[in-house]
Amino acid sequence: MRLIFFGPPGAGKGTQAKRLEEMRGLKQLSTGDMLRAEIAANSAIGVDAKSYMDKGELVPDSVLVAMIEHCVKQPDCAKGFILDGFPRTIPQAEALDAMLARNSTPLDAVVEFQVDEEELFARVRNRAAQTRAEGKEVRSDDNEDVLKKRLDVYKAQTLPVLGYYQNKGMVRSVNGMKLVEDVSVDIDTLLGL
Ligand code: AP5
Ligand code: MG
User: Fold this and answer.
1) What are the catalytic residues?
2) Sign of the Cα pseudo-torsion (163, 13, 9, 103, in order)
3) Tell me, what CATH number does 63's domain have?
């Protein structure tokens, strides 16, 4: 099964993708996690990406498309994958369609997480506080100012991607305001798992 998890920052895409990876063997492909790994490794991609991510802006499409193109061909994606945080622009969506068509591996569904803005701020605040309490490094974009920017970018550049997949009849929506466990049950139900 090949899926896209779609929604604003803090909606719960990563939380639910990890669970589906553990339960069903679908590979989670989180572009945010991949970019943070590049930053940690101090690679050329990481150094460049950091300048965008710290401001809440999107990293250029060419970088992300190459990253995903490489990943979907790996053996650990053979049982399927969950794209978490990709595509985030129309050119990314078009590039994804083209690469999946070339490989004859079409998408099964786009799962849209619906969460109120107030709740997104609360979740990101909680995560920052929890991470700090554990003595770990807080994500450089997990603060109120950068989250505001991430939400503006989401509305301007990423929401059109939802319309793109709605036109193809592929979007299934979940109420992401529920408890983590209840969102999981709803996702399983809508995917027929
Ligand atoms: P990325 O890492 O993708 O961040 P994001 O999607 O903006 O935000 P999150 O990862 O915080 O949201 P999430 O939906 O995964 O929620 P989570 O499960 O973590 O991207 C970071 C940056 O990288 C971008 O700004 C951009 O610069 C760059 N980038 C990445 N992809 C790109 C692309 N394709 N193109 C260009 N640039 C790209 O949950 C959040 C918190 O809420 C957690 O603490 C969690 O425990 C909690 N939580 C989850 N579910 C619930 C629930 N149901 N109830 C209560 N709390 C919950
Ligand atoms: Mg995430």
Assistant:
1) 13, 88, 127, 139, 150
2) negative
3) 3.40.50.300
Residue 71, classified by CB atoms within 10 Å of its CB into exposed (0-12), middle (13-18) or buried (19+), is middle
Total-model pTM: 0.98
Total domains, the chain: 1
36 CB near ligand 1 (under 6 Å) = no
Nearest CA to ligand 1 atom 20: 32
| Tokens 């909606």 found at | 11
Q: Is the CB of 123 under 6 A from ligand 1?
A: yes
- Ligand 1 pocket member 27 (CB < 6 A): no
**Helix residue spans in 54-174 (DSSP H):** 61-72, 90-102, 117-133, 144-153, 159-166
Closest ligand to 48 CA? 1
Q: Which domain holds residue 149?
A: 2-191
Q: Give tens-digit pLDDT for 106-165.
A: 999 999 999 999 999 999 999 999 999 999 999 999 999 999 999 999 999 999 999 999
